[in-house]
Request: fold
Amino acid sequence: MIKSSCGGRYALVQEMSLLIELAAKPHHHKTHSTMTENSLEKHILSIVCSVFDAYSVVLFLPDEEGEGHHLAASFSLGDKIGAKATVLPGKGLVGWIVRNRQPLLVPNFDQRQSNLGYYSGGEEASIKAFMGCPVPTGGALCVDSKRQYSFSDKDHKILQMFAELVARQQGSKGRQDLTGNIPRYFVELGVIQDLRFRYKRWPQFLQNYLRIMVEATGFDYCAFASVDEPGETYCVESESARLLLTGEEPLILPMGSGITGWVFRNDQPVIAEGVEGAPATVLFGKLPDMPDFQAAICMPVMVNKSTRGVLCLAHTNPRQIDESLRSFVRQSVDHLALFLENLYLKMRLRTMLPRARVHNDGPQAYDPDTAPIPPTKEY
Reply:
């Protein structure tokens, strides 16, 4: 979860947008270009530091020759970052990320077991938590903190979006192709996160969630389906535009119907960009009055390691579905799963707790004739 306040988070996203516009402008002088790129990278890292309330943020990128990775940029609340720090694949925490191309979270840092490799002057001994993720084009983006348990499992997904931004910035040096939709997706994730606090009831939350997903992605249609009878049927609960649901009741379909049924059975997403003139993408099987969708994203919603729902996005024309859009949908589905998990826990709690009697007529006066008699000990 992002550590900044809601208003502060949006301000940071706006600043990211300005950075992207700056990076997208052509550079006419090589020296000025290098300075701009370095300052841009450092400014991005300062935003990352604010978002995660971190002590330091470091960016390691591959050397031009060999397997080593050098410290390309850093931002720290201290002054002990080694400017010439390098890491090798598999060496230390950063090296582990570089070698395995996987995110890493160490909530309670133990100096005796691992090392960071980018501090000098004994500063590393004060670090208590670490988180890092691979940069898609090579390297690693990492944050640390002097407080234990500063980062959660959800945080690395937000950090990954920043890593993608860095990768796009690296790939766009000398070109005007950086902008993309990452800042807008980042804002929409904040809006989706706030839905859980604005709408406590599932129907209201879900309807607003589907509306935001359509607005954020530009898809024509969004729907949510949930398990009806496990292994047998599923139901379309809600949709952004009424194509299937004419009344209040959900639409019950066999588990094998359409792409959605396949996702339920295989616990895997389906992403189709579509081809002009190709057969329509069938979301829920062959149903009347459904448009000929071409592009589609059907993402499983996992609760307790089981697919309890499927989020479907569909578009009538083929469209490119880049990595930033895929990442946004995955993270949006995580918020949806979190809401469902909270509902599940509340239901379990209601069934486990004994039914309580509630007096609605105020406090009861003590009456010695009707008061329960405390048990007496026998000697």
In short: The CA atoms of residues 38 and 73 lie 7 Å apart. The chain has a mean pLDDT of 79. DSSP finds eight helices and twelve strands in the chain. The chain has two domains: 6-180, 192-352.
